[in-house]
Amino acid sequence: MSFVAEVEVRFRDHDSFGHVNNAVYATYCEQARVRFFEEVLGTPLSDPHIVVAHLELDYRAPIEGVGTVEVAVEAGEPGGKSFPISYTLSYDGEVVATGETVQVAMDDEGRPTRVPDQWREAIADQP
Where are the transmembrane segments (predicted)? Predict the structure, then answer.
């Protein structure tokens, strides 16, 4: 089971073709990731000790109209200093995109450091 965040699809997200612009899908993932960090890992994503080192998205269908996109978020097993998060974006019951980011834990000097034990435990406890 994944953590699911509902994200508003706004009129301004659309391009001249009437579809949500491809770059906005990354923003939907980011909004879901913020909630995941706050609600599951107990850490605000504004914490400067977290950076995204990699992002990939695969588009399956356009989002047309306004409403809500559901973003399922699931963290993978942490390595030493990083861990992946996978995303499944659904609109009107249809999967419209999938993606993944890799988060890197950073120390106070801005260097990669070990993923905190608190995060490791929360990730292991995901349903």
Answer: none
Model confidence over 35-58: pLDDT tens digits?
999 999 988 877 778 899 999 999
| Band of residue 125 on the pLDDT scale cut at 50, 70, 90 | confident
Contact 102, 84 (CB under 8 A): yes
Name the residue with tokens 């406890």.
Answer: 125
Domains of the chain (ranges; CATH) run: 3-124 (3.10.129.10)
Is residue 14 helix, strand or coil? strand
Long-range CB contact pairs, 89-97, < 8 A, 24+:
89/25, 89/28, 89/29, 91/9, 91/61, 91/63, 91/67, 92/67, 94/61, 95/60, 95/61, 96/25, 96/59, 96/60, 96/61, 96/62, 96/63, 96/69, 97/25, 97/57, 97/58, 97/59, 97/60, 97/61
